[in-house]
Amino acid sequence: MKVIIHDLDDRYDELFRSKFDHVLAADGKYAPCQGCFGCWTKHPAECFMKDKLNQVCRIIGQADELVIITKNLYGEYSGPVKNILDRSIGTSTPFSTYRGRQMHHTLRYGKHDLWKVIVWGDITDAEKDTFRYLAERNAVNDGFEHAEVIFLPDLTEMEAAL
Description:
Layout: E1 2-6, H1 13-19, E2 22-25, H2 56-61, E3 65-71, H3 79-86, E4 92-99, E5 102-107, E6 112-120, H4 125-141, E7 144-152, H5 158-161
Parallel strand pairs: 1-2, 1-3, 3-6, 6-7
Antiparallel strand pairs: 4-5
């Protein structure tokens, strides 16, 4: 299953729906994570908040390929994209295991293939390094075999990068 998280406006939704099984628009029309860990323990992989991200753990957890399109924010995901990623903590369990010779949480849904980040906007070389490291670490932590980061100065080449 292919899933995309994006912080673009709804002009791109039709394109994304034709290429992806699930489209998660980081439009801010949802609550930020409350840090209650209910999606870990009380009701696994389901957020107690009844908004459009209620099932985000299951959607991301079942993705073979996750594509994230985000505006650069000092070498970090945009705020709305980060909120979606925060709400997906239930893709793992509170238990720990070794993965990549490091301690990580046990995956609730098993391994995945590709964590791909398409970053748009002005970006310095130092921010590029930060983004590459961040994507690699996120991929390992969430059980993705590969991480890829593509930098675009603007969105004109975005469709080819998908």
